[in-house]
Design a protein that fits this description.
- The complex is a heterodimer of chains A (about 450) and B (about 160).
- Chain A is an alpha/beta fold and about 450 residues long.
- Chain A has 3 domains: about 120 residues, NAD(P)-binding Rossmann-like Domain (Rossmann fold), CATH 3.40.50.720; about 130 residues, NAD(P)-binding Rossmann-like Domain (Rossmann fold), CATH 3.40.50.720; about 90 residues, 2-Layer Sandwich (Alpha-Beta Plaits).
- Helix content of chain A is about 30%, strand content about 25%.
- Chain A has 15 helices and 22 strands.
- Chain A has a 6-stranded parallel beta sheet with strand order 3-2-1-4-5-6, sandwiched between helices. A 6-stranded parallel beta sheet of chain A has the order 14-13-12-15-16-17, with helices on both faces. Chain A has a 5-stranded antiparallel beta sheet with strand order 7-8-11-9-10, with no helix packed on it.
- Chain A is globular, with a radius of gyration of 23 Å.
- The two termini of chain A are about 20 Å apart.
- Chain B is an alpha/beta fold and about 160 residues long.
- Chain B contains 5 helices and 6 strands, in the order E-H-H-E-E-E-E-E-H-H-H.
- Helices cover about 45% and strands about 20% of the residues of chain B.
- Classes of the chains: A alpha/beta (about 450), B alpha/beta (about 160).
- Chains A and B meet through helix 7 and helix 8 of A and helix 3 of B.
């Protein structure tokens, strides 16, 4: 596929890396020559210096032959105009990053359908959604809904006291019937492993499970944790994300505190929120936080605009006794480091946005895809065509590339966790877990 | 680790009279708590209601009737000191809300200390594998009495590869 990306920031850079790795033909446009040089050095892509909202530059970048257009500069209007131009050049699919909420609502005179843009993505909204998802499965470090929500890919860190330590994958397979799930991957010391039968689970491993959504409590029982809905939540930072998350959590039955340093912002927040207690204090003031009861809270969500504040506020809250922290980070490079410091869930708004775009980009034979946050793996959904040569064959006879495995099958709307004996039928929807570098091979297998 | 390490003749009910899932769980809980106190395996002593509540809680997450006539109720019990296994057979079959909606004939109960170890899941996996073997299952249904049942389980257990 020929892809044009406008904007060489963190989102654009991440998308370039991902899409060129998968063998797509990527051209990147940005006004900043230095940024382009930096990305060019790391990746095999073409770059063009110039304004992405200029027809001349777009023509030079080969827009007439592009299949997909992604505009992710820091300026909403540039992204929108670039996409409108792309539409005029007949590019089939267009994605724009937009911050201003005015462009995003369905009632707005300028919304995605009127502009002819396939996906408008707001990093703050994407971030808020991700945080809320994590809040519903507090013991998990990641949860992704698949197959319209019937299947969940959920990841847990295995503590030394868990009965899972020392169990191998073969033992787990014997539990089928009592506990139905697939373990598609284990992240061990920042490396993603696709486990085989004799591989043992070790303390500290991060394990992904693919399960039916209703079976999540069973999985938690098995590994010895229990996710309860958070009863007491502290949000540090009253910006868009902080406000969105507070607003949504007000619907759930929990005690909510929102902290911001700016007294004016606090006043506005008090007017807009009903059940949330808005506190005008410093998120780094341990004494104040403790007197408000941060020591007994279930989760702290640090979403100010400053990385350092978010990191320190999270560590302080954990030190005071908060059970879990979700921390917004704008520099994705920090993420691997933060786990070691004791930050439970570091989230980069840009990576979250980039992942959402990738999910959209992969359509066609692939229905949807989710890129897993701290790992080089993703989950794809394929629909089996009746022409596929492996139809009516058991799963174990299908030559899946090494590094990919089937986590679930959705048949007639019913989700099933398969074994090697499960026979594939036409129209089955397969949920396949794969290491990123294997994804193109997998696509070829399904296109055969 | 073998299943039979945790099993003696008293842990086998060859002909359980029960007509509902509830009744099965009650009988198992009563039998387990009396054996646990007799052998001094739990401190303080565990009463049948406690065991029953744990089993029911687990059944609420999803039936342990895994189909093919088999059920493996299990759970963690505060105070018990080691794994505890019971085998019960219903000759007539009992409805157990099983995955395949069919009656259940062979039932293994597994109880584990609250601070569980790998052994718990290993034995659970082993019981599950043993019962999924059709030949073993049929032999369990045909066995004359508790002594023969014990023999069948022992032989099948020995034949399974040890994974520890």
């Amino acid at each position: 596929m020929r892809i044009l990306i406008v904007g060489a920031g963190a989102v654009g850079g991440h998308l370039c890396g991902q899409l060129s790795l998968e063998g797509h033909d990527v051209t990147l446009i940005d006004t900043d020559l230095e940024k382009l040089r930096k990305i060019e050095n790391d990746l095999n892509i073409m770059t063009i210096q110039g304004n992405g909202a200029s027809a001349e530059i777009l023509e030079e970048a080969g827009i007439k032959k592009a299949d997909l257009f992604i505009a992710v500069t820091n300026i909403d209007e540039v992204n929108l105009i670039a996409c409108i131009l792309a539409k005029e050049y007949g590019v089939a699919r267009k994605v724009a990053r937009v911050r201003n909420e005015e462009y995003l609502s369905a009632s707005s005179p300028l919304n995605s359908s009127r502009l002819g843009i396939d996906l408008l993505i707001n990093p703050d909204t994407a971030m808020s959604e991700e945080i809320l998802k994590i809040c519903s499965h507090l013991e998990a470090f990641e949860a992704v809904e698949l197959a319209k929500g019937d299947i969940t890919l959920i990841g847990y860190e295995i503590r030394p006291e868990s009965p899972m330590c020392g169990i191998n994958l073969m033992d787990l397979r014997d539990l089928k019937g009592l506990y139905d799930f697939v373990v598609p991957a284990i992240v061990r010391q920042d490396k993603t492993i696709v486990p085989r039968g004799e591989d043992e689970i070790r303390p500290g491993d991060k394990i992904y499970f693919i399960v039916r959504r209703n079976d999540i409590p069973k999985i938690e029982e098995l590994i010895g944790v229990k996710s309860q809905a958070p009863k007491k939540v502290f949000i540090i930072g009253g910006g868009h994300v902080g406000y969105n998350v507070a607003k949504a959590l007000e619907e759930r039955d929990c005690e909510l505190f929102l902290i911001d340093e700016d007294p004016k912002r606090c006043e506005r927040l008090v007017e807009k929120l009903d059940k949330t207690i808005v506190l005008n204090i410093d998120g780094l003031d341990g004494h104040e936080l403790r007197s408000e009861g941060i020591d007994t809270c279930d989760v702290v969500i640090a979403v100010t605009d400053e990385d350092t504040t978010n990191i320190l506020a999270s560590l302080l809250a954990k030190h005071l006794g908060a059970k879990k922290c979700i921390t917004r980070i704008s520099r994705p490079d920090f993420i691997p480091l933060l786990g070691k410091l004791g930050i439970d869930v570091p989230l980069s708004a840009r990576l979250v946005a980039a992942n959402m775009i990738l999910r959209f980009v992969r359509r066609g034979t692939i229905l949807s895809a989710a890129t897993l946050l701290g790992s080089n793996a993703e989950v794809l959904e394929f629909v089996v065509s009746s022409m596929w040569p492996y139809v009516e064959r058991p799963l174990k006879d299908i030559p899946f590339p090494k590094g990919a495995n089937v986590g679930a099958i959705v048949r007639n709307g019913e989700a099933e966790i398969p074994t090697g004996q499960t026979v594939i039928r036409p129209k089955d929807k397969l949920i396949v877990f794969t290491l990123k570098e294997v994804a193109p091979k997998l696509e070829r297998l399904f296109a055969s | 680790m073998f299943i039979t390490q945790f099993l003696n003749n008293e842990c086998i009910i060859a002909d359980m009279e029960a007509s509902s899932k509830e009744e099965v769980l009650e009988i198992l809980a009563r039998h387990a708590s009396s054996l646990l106190s007799k052998d001094d395996l739990a401190k303080p002593q565990v009463n049948a209601t406690e065991v029953l509540n744990v089993l029911k809680e687990r059944e609420q997450l999803g039936s342990t009737g895994i189909g093919g006539g088999v059920a493996i109720p299990h759970g963690k019990i505060k105070g018990i000191e080691r794994l505890f296994v019971l085998f019960a057979r219903s000759l007539k079959g009992v409805p157990f809300d099983a995955l395949d909606q069919k009656a259940v004939y062979a039932i293994f109960l597994l109880l584990a200390p609250e601070a569980t170890s790998t052994a718990y899941l290993k034995i659970l996996a082993r019981i599950s594998r043993l019962l999924k073997d059709k030949a073993v299952y049929n032999a369990l249904l045909k066995a004359k009495d508790a002594k023969e049942l014990m023999e069948v389980i022992k032989n099948a257990d020995k034949a399974l590869p040890l994974s520890i």
